[in-house]
Amino acid sequence: MKFPSICALIALGLLAPVGQALADEDELYKTKNCFACHRVDRNHLGPSFKSIAAKYADEQGVEEKLARKVREGSVGVWGQVPMPAQPQVSEAEALTLTRWILTRK
């Protein structure tokens, strides 16, 4: 009887960090100024995350391309309102944000 209990505790211990990581990804966009211009479901100053995910859904290798746009900024893809550079976002955070955005389909 102790064996299943130990397995359950081990499984919970292994899954807890994953759950925390997913929660952090869901909150990262709020702490990195993304929410100033973007919303998940609707356009604001910039396109919605769902619109971004739909636009790039079939493009291979797009994560790095979009992560670079987060850090360096861009203009012209979604109209003439510029996306300002976000240098406070690390390369790793930009990739995490980009991957999260692309799952918002």
Name the features.
105 residues, disordered N terminus, 4 helices, single chain, mainly alpha, Cytochrome Bc1 Complex, Chain D, domain 2
Describe the 3D structure:
- The protein is an all-alpha fold.
- Helix content is 56%, strand content 0%.
- Helix 1 (2-31) packs across helix 4 and helix 3 (62-72) crosses helix 4 (91-101).
- The protein is globular, with a radius of gyration of 17 Å.
Structure summary:
With 105 residues, this protein is mostly helical. It has helices at 2-31, 49-55, 62-72, 91-101.
What is the strand content? under 5%
CATH names the topology as Cytochrome Bc1 Complex, Chain D, domain 2
Name given to the CATH homologous superfamily: Cytochrome c-like domain
Low-confidence stretches: 1-23
Walk me through the topology:
Blueprint: H1 2-31, H2 49-55, H3 62-72, H4 91-101
Helix pairs in contact: 1-4, 3-4
